[in-house]
Automatic annotation (TrEMBL):
Active site: 446
Residues at which NAD(+) binds: 184-191
Binding site for FAD: 56, 314
Reaction equations catalysed: N(6)-[(R)-dihydrolipoyl]-L-lysyl-[protein] + NAD(+) = N(6)-[(R)-lipoyl]-L-lysyl-[protein] + NADH + H(+)
Superkingdom assignment: Bacteria
Protein name: Dihydrolipoyl dehydrogenase
Organism: Parageobacillus thermoglucosidasius
Keyword Flavoprotein tagged: yes
GO cellular component: cytoplasm
Family the UniProt entry places it in: Belongs to the class-I pyridine nucleotide-disulfide oxidoreductase family.
Keywords of this entry: Disulfide bond, FAD, Flavoprotein, NAD, Nucleotide-binding, Oxidoreductase, Redox-active center
Residue ranges annotated for the FAD/NAD(P)-binding domain, each copy included: 11-329
Cofactor(s) for this UniProt protein: FAD
Length: 482
């Protein structure tokens, strides 16, 4: 190993090239700072190479599979249709490669020094980088830690990446599971379940509570859809152990009543908890404060307990979402450059690329009842939306929650076609402290999925045109399609 004699001087050194890291790097470079970005694997991090992007390639393909029956219904003859997992894997690789090359090109265009190597702190203003046989020292004015987190399987389950899979290996399977068990309570479990069901796998879902952290109305609609599609749901169950053989797995479940049940399948997906990737960073030399769970503690500017060192993304704990990491990375860069910038995660949305998609922001009905004296709830079934009828995607519901006293919108929850795009209207509304009239007043294109949001808001005060009068405040009867 060759040790560099001189320390390279940089305004900003960033450890980790995932969404938080490379967004921070580009934003810092835009603001005129000299930037070195260190990544030990590939730019884009886990999100681009193993997580977000591969999973969305699968959910996109699953959605297309789910649309086939409707395509034939409207007169387009397809002939024999089959799903080829190998081709999907090739497409996934192509998309990931193209996007990674795009990130590399952006870093080059912004004159960001990108180093492939392992980094660790030597002191409060120096980072050592091991790259092959070389070792270099960088002296920095500011540093950003964006090393992410890794999945840790439950103590009772050993992930073998063959038949017992996690979020990394599920999208690398070489053969379609005949019967996939899905164990978890997060959005990843939902996406896995719906995607593989669309591809033709039999799917059984094992969950601790069955709500997946969603508003109760959305969770009930999801369970209705699963029942219709013959997706078996084991609610209030915990997996005690998993055994595998060359061609099957068996999960021993403990129910809420203490009963032991066995669920069998060809494969099992396990949603795992996350652990911050900090073990090799030398943080003990710096005394940076951490949370009880071991994540790096930060403030609203993404600063750690050492104000010139920042942390962004999964390494800071909380929701493991790229959208959070991206925002934190930009805020960190802007703060370093002397700009007034901050992070507020109050209206961080929940997004699930399931079939149909799920999106929510703000308070659930249960949370709103706990915080406000009196609330209104308006809901509109997607089946009542004319455009949903045209495209043959009528499952779902849109729900709005408001404060009765001030007509203030408190939460927006959706399951149904267009939910992920439409939730941006809810996010902007909540950020701007929108009242009911602020959402009702604008024009909504007709026919479009957007009108479901309008009618859900109108239903708050019994004004929805396509809901029967007696059911304006509920969702018990089917809406009248326009």
């Amino acid at each position: 190993m060759v040790v560099g004699e001189l320390a390279h001087e940089r305004d900003v050194v960033i450890i980790g090239g995932g969404p938080g890291g490379y967004n921070a790097a580009i934003r810092a470079a835009q603001l005129g700072l000299s930037v070195t970005l260190i990544e030990k694997a590939e730019l884009g991090g886990v999100c681009l190479n193993k997580g977000c992007i591969p999973s969305k390639v699968f959910t996109h393909a699953a959605q297309k599979m789910a649309e086939i029956s409707h395509i034939e219904e409207i007169g387009i003859k397809l002939g024999h249709v089959s799903f080829q997992l190998g081709k999907l894997q090739n497409y996934k690789t192509k998309v990931v490669t193209q996007l990674r090359q795009g990130v590399e090109a952006l870093c080059k265009a912004n004159r960001i020094e990108v180093i492939c190597g392992k980094a660790s702190f030597l002191s409060e203003d120096r980072i050592g980088v091991e790259s092959g046989e070389a070792f270099a020292v960088y002296r920095f004015r500011h540093a950003i830690i964006a090393t992410g987190a890794s999945y840790v399987s439950p103590p009772s389950i050993t992930i073998d990446h063959d038949r017992i899979l996690n979020a990394y290996s599920i999208y690398g399977v070489e053969a379609l599971p005949s019967h996939l068990l899905v164990y978890g309570d997060d959005y990843i479990a939902l996406e896995v379940a719906m995607s593989f069901h669309a591809f033709g796998s039999q799917v059984s879902v094992i969950t601790n509570d069955g709500t997946f952290g969603l508003d109760e109305t959305v969770a009930k609609e999801l369970q209705r859809i699963w029942k219709k599609r013959k997706i078996k749901l084991y609610r209030h169950c915990k997996v005690e152990s998993v055994t595998s053989s060359p061609d099957a797995v068996a999960a021993t479940l403990k129910t809420a009543s203490g009963e032991t049940v066995t669920a069998e399948g060809s494969h099992i997906f396990v949603a795992c908890e996350a652990k911050a990737n900090i073990d090799e960073l030398g943080l003990d030399r710096l005394g940076i404060q951490r949370t009880e769970q071991g994540f790096i503690e930060i403030n609203h500017q993404a600063q750690t307990s050492l104000s010139h060192i920042f942390a962004v993304g999964d390494v800071t704990g909380g929701s493991m979402l790229a959208v959070k990491a991206i925002k934190q990375g930009k805020v960190a860069a802007e703060t370093i450059a002397g700009k007034q910038s901050e992070i507020d995660l109050t209206f961080l949305p929940t997004i699930v690329h399931s079939i149909p998609p799920i999106a929510s922001v703000g308070l659930t009905e249960e949370e709103a009842k706990a915080q406000y004296e009196d609330i209104r709830v308006g809901s509109f079934p997607v089946a009542g939306n004319g455009y949903a009828g045209i495209i043959g995607q009528k499952d779902g519901v849109v729900k709005i929650i408001s404060d009765t006293k001030h007509d203030l919108i408190l939460g927006v929850h959706m399951i149904g076609v267009g939910a992920i795009d439409l939730i941006s209207s809810g996010i902007i509304g909540l950020e701007m402290a929108a009242h009911e009239e602020d959402i009702k007043f604008p024009f909504y294109p007709h026919p479009s999925n957007n009108e479901s949001l309008l009618e859900a808001v109108e239903a708050l005060q019994a004004e929805a045109v396509h809901l029967p009068p007696a059911k304006q405040k509920g969702n018990e009867k089917k809406a009248v399609s326009r």
